[in-house]
Design brief:
- By secondary structure, this protein is an alpha+beta fold.
- It has a single domain, classed as Aminopeptidase, CATH 3.40.630.
- The chain is 26% helix and 32% strand.
- It contains 4 helices and 9 strands; from the N terminus they run βααβββαβαββββ.
- Strands 1, 2, 3, 4, 5, 6, 7, 8 and 9 form a 9-stranded mixed beta sheet that branches.
- A hairpin with a 2-residue loop joins β2 and β3.
- It is globular.
- The structure holds coenzyme A (COA).
Length: 163
């Protein structure tokens, strides 16, 4: 039976890292998004993992970031990964939506995600107008998306950095 639960690091963290190795490969850590994650700490109570009989088969990790000179708070969603054997049922969206609900319930104002709009648009993410958000490294503007949580994501503007 598949269930979606918060991350318990002592139970899930090693399996999550193994899943990232399988899904992204070694090039993963070179990405701009990783530069942000390097200096932030993901939030286990908001992260969501999909378990099949206790085995980690999917994950969405979530990181606090600040945006612009006013240091507006936002949550950065990703990486999102699903075990290749379990793909084909939009499980990534179900996991991400559970993590979005958790972020909203905890009062975080807005979510940022870098990824495919064709997929994550289905979870309510919209592409930001070009230039509104910048990152500490190159980033394809067509992949930069935001979504309201408890606040207004359209207020986010400026350089996205770790807190
Ligand atoms: C992306 C991923 C999480 C999706 O897994 P999933 O929820 O099982 O997705 P599905 O296989 O059910 O596919 C759902 C839809 O998303 C599309 N899709 C899948 N991966 C995609 C990707 N990387 N980019 C764009 N679209 C993608 C599929 O084509 C499908 O669309 P369709 O129904 O129009 O054909 C999974 O493929 C994965 O782990 N990939 C490697 C890691 C990754 O690229 N993560 C995303 C960036 S953070």
């Amino acid at each position: 039976m598949i269930e979606i639960v918060p991350e318990t690091p002592s139970l899930h963290a090693d399996a999550i890292e193994a899943l990232f190795d399988v899904t992204f490969g070694p090039g993963h850590f070179a990405k701009t998004a990783e530069r942000l994650r390097e200096y932030s700490r993901s939030l286990p109570e908001i992260n969501r993992v999909a378990l099949d009989d206790g085995k980690v088969i999917g994950v969405c990790r979530v990181w606090p970031l600040v945006v612009g000179p006013e240091r507006m708070q936002a949550l950065f969603y990703g990486p999102v990964a699903v075990d290749p054997a379990y793909r084909g049922n939009f499980l990534s969206l179900k996991i991400t939506e559970a993590a979005l609900e958790a972020g909203k319930a905890a009062g975080w104002p807005a979510a940022i995600l870098i990824g495919a709009h064709s997929l994550f648009g289905k979870a309510g993410f919209t592409i930001v107008p070009r230039g509104r958000l910048t990152f500490p490294g190159p980033q394809d503007p067509a992949r930069i998306m935001v979504r309201d949580l408890a606040g207004d994501a359209s207020l986010l503007e400026g350089l996205v950095t770790a807190p």
